[in-house]
Every structure is written in C-alpha cells, then in structure tokens.
Amino acid sequence: MLKNMLKATVFATTMALATGSFYTHAFAETVYNRGAAAEAETVDPHKTSTVYEADIIRDLFQGLVMHDQKTNLIPGAAESWTVSDDGTVYTFKLRKDGLWSDGSPVTADDFVYSFHRLEDPATAAEYASMLYPVKGAEDFNTKKGKAEDMGVKAIDANTLEVTLKAPTPYFLEMLTHQATYPVNKASIDKLGADWIKPGKLVSNGAYTLAEWVPNDHMKLVKNPKFWDAASVKLDVVNYIPTEDRSSAMKRFEAGELDSYGDLPTEQLADLKTKFGDQIRVGPYLGTYYYAIKTDKAPWNNVELRNAISMAIDRDFLAEKVWQNSMLPGYSMVPPGIEGYTPALAKYADMPQIDREDEAKKILEKLGYTPEHPLKMEIRYNTSENHKNTAVAIQEQLKPLGVEVTLLNTDTKTHYGFLEQKGNYDVARAAWIADYKDPETFLGISRKASGNNYSNYDSPAYEAAMDKAAAAGGKPEDRMKDLAAAERILVDDVGEIPLLYYSYHDIVSSKLHGFDDNVMDIHPSRFISKD
C-alpha cells in the first residue's frame, strides 16, 4: 500500500512539474490579440481585396520591398535594387538567406511565377491592373498576349529584372502592396486550392498560419525560417474579427483585444475620456465614398448623379455622425499626398442650402418630387458608423423627392457582391491608399480595374490617365495630368466621395512599435508587447 502511495506521489509530482513546465512555457509566449473590424476572405495575395486581408497577408508574406512601422520604404525579399537611367528597368538582388517557411529558398523564379499568376486571366485577380505598368502585363491579363512576353525575367536565382512600359515613379511604392507578393509554386502545384489552409500554407514572411476558425480567430505564429526572425518579438498574433464596434470596446477593456482599428465614433468623446492616449486619431490616406451604378438607368444620367451628390451634407456627416473623426470629402484623392492638389467638386464651396436648392431643381426637371419620388437603395456593410451615415443621407434626400431604402450585409457578403458586379443602386465603399500616390485612388475607376464597382467607363478619363502614365520629365507635370484626369471623374460623378478618413485606433499601452502613420499600416514584426 505504501509502495503504491509512493508511486502515486511520484507520478503526481512528475505530472505537476510537467504541467507547470507547460504553463510556464505557454505563459512565456508573447501573444498579440489583434482586433479586426471584419474577417478576411482569403490569405491568397493574388485574390485579396480588402485592408482586413492586407494586414494579415503583410504578416505572412514579404514582397520585394516593404514598409516599416512609419511607412518608410525598406528592403524586403530584395536586399537591394538598381534602376536604369531611363527609369524603365529595375534589377532586384534577392536575399541569399531568404527562405520559404518550408526551408526552400525564395528565388527570382518565384517572383516571375507570381507576377504571371497575378496577371493570368484564370486567376481573376482584382488587383491585376496593379502590374499594368510592367511591359506585357496588361496584354497578358486581357488575353492579347502571353505570360512569357511580360517584362519579368530571372537573370539567376537571386536576380530579378523587371521592365516597365514607361517610367513609373510610384513603382517601388506599388510593390509594397500584397498583390505583388510571391507565392510558393510547389505548394500550389501539390495542394491546389488547399495551399492556403492552416498548417499547409507555405509563406516567406515573419509569421505562418497556424489556425483559422471562421468568425472567431486566425492564429499566426512566428516563422523561424524568416530571414530576420531574431528581431521579431511577438510569438503569436491572433487576428480576431469583431464587426460590432461596441463589443470590440468591451473586449478591449476586458483585455481580450490589444488593439482595434475602427472605433464607434458616436462614443468617441467618452472613449477618449475613458482610455486616454490609448485612443489614436490622426490623418489617414483614405476616401469614404459611395459607388453608384453608372451603367444602370436612371443612374447613367450624370445630371441625376450630380444632384444626389450635391444634396448630401458632408459637414453634417463629418461633425455629427463621425464626431469630427473624418473630414468632408469632395474629391476621390484625399489631401496629404506631396505635390498633388485634388480636383474638388465644383459645388464644394457652395453653401449647403444653395446646393440643396440646385439639386431639387435638377430632380424636378427629371420628374422626381416628394409626390413622385426617385427610388434609391443604399447598400452598406455592417457597422454602426456606416448605418448612421446611410440613415443621415436617407433623411437629407427625403425632402428632395428621393425615397431611400437601406440594405445591410456583413462585410464579406457586401464586398463579394460588389466584386461580382451585382445589381444595385448605391453602395458604401472606401479606398485606402495602396501606395502614396494619387494613381492608387484614380486607378480604381478605370474600366479595367476589378475595383471599379461603379462600372464607370469614360474614354476621356482613360485617355487622361494614359497621358499621366506616359508623362516624362518633371514630376509636377505628371501630377497636373493626374489632376486633369480627376477633374473628369469628379465632374462625371463616377463615384460619390463623401469623407476623407482619419484613422481612429485603440491601442493598448502595453504595445510598442504601433507607430501612427498616414497609411495606418502596422506590421506585426515591428511590434512588441510588455
């Protein structure tokens, strides 16, 4: 009996020590619970479409160049590069210690394959147009050319040469976007569609994908094969989607979230009082707009689109709905891009009452009155902020003879519907700068863009954008050409810009390296936690 008791005691002690050891190890892990306003649809860089995915993909993969925590351009998978005198040929030297998470080397051929895959029509990438500055890319994507004719060439395993159609000043900035990141061909060939699943995804970034529980969390773990793994401080990053902003604030207060990127603005004053400098608000390169179906009657009438846009009181939206965390917007390109002056709507300086009177005259001329109202549906994705915006616009338009109905869906469904060119009238959308250049805001309204939700199609606009793309000489001349293109877009009301973004984040005081910047980009590899 005593012998058995001793055995039991030894067993229990051993288990306690083992258990204690496990919890000590688990406790030693540094875990960042990163709140997100919506769930990602995919972690495939070439099928991405939202900022929610961008944050995650930026942690999993690494492009040729990257942004640091202050959005400065830094080397990524390429340790250096050179540019030809005429600005059309970029030669990238890849890191010799750059590895995929399975231990295989990252090579120039990986980027050739990935650039081809992005442009392959079979991929149906929304961001295929991003690489159109590359020679032959647009032809391949539009089935007028072949992949091998693209200006992308592996000189050797560690040297990639990219040839552009014309000098493109923003090309390096563009390469920070997740759509230009490399993917692992061997993994895709072996696993097919399953290559993006947790435990199977082969990536080259600071983290790997360990778990993905839909509507709950996505767990990323530190990648020991990453070339700069020694400087990565966080062991685990959990992306936790929480569309209900008020619930997110409660989870932050309870310590379940360490940061969250979309505050309920109606609570902003109280949140600032409660959380102090953990609330971060500042300028952000983004435009909050309504896409409007320009190829569908009656919205194909530019006078009607202009009347609707003119009647919306943006000052009210900014001050009352968004509690001054946004600014009234009258152009697609927000202020803040060096050397560029946005083309504002011609009525931007008109008093609101005069704008409403003018809009009413146009609507009456077109046959719309309170007795014979124009029917208009506004679609928006789940958010109290978006709902309040839509309700305010509904009330503003009602006296003018516009009967607005609202339709709400979750973010994934909402953007999926827009991407598939669904039938709608007006839909909430937003564009956050992919790179610090006006082209990122203007390119989405080009006919070929997968992000052209309005189906805007203007030969004059296309010609103006082509002229800007081909512009040589002084950078200020190119900026003037882009502003001329924006003037066409704004006068046509190809989109309805409403507000310019400010970021409004809540960030735990335990986090370090979550630096404020106009892109609101915060790569986890630069963040640490007490």
Automatic annotation (TrEMBL):
Alphabetical list of Pfam families matching this protein: SBP_bac_5 (PF00496)
Gene3D superfamilies: Dipeptide-binding Protein, Domain 1, Dipeptide-binding Protein, Domain 3, Periplasmic binding protein-like II
Boundaries of every Solute-binding protein family domain copy: 73-451
CDD domains: PBP2_OppA
Cleaved signal peptide residues: 1-26
InterPro entries referenced in this protein's UniProt entry, alphabetically: Peptide/Ni-bd, SBP_5, SBP_5_dom
Localization per record: Periplasm
Chief subcellular location: periplasm
Alphabetical UniProt keywords: Signal, Transport
Family of the protein in this entry: Belongs to the bacterial solute-binding protein 5 family.
PANTHER family: PERIPLASMIC BINDING COMPONENT OF ABC TRANSPORTER, PERIPLASMIC OLIGOPEPTIDE-BINDING PROTEIN-RELATED
Protein name according to UniProt: Peptide ABC transporter substrate-binding protein
Species classification: Bacteria, Pseudomonadati, Pseudomonadota, Alphaproteobacteria, Hyphomicrobiales
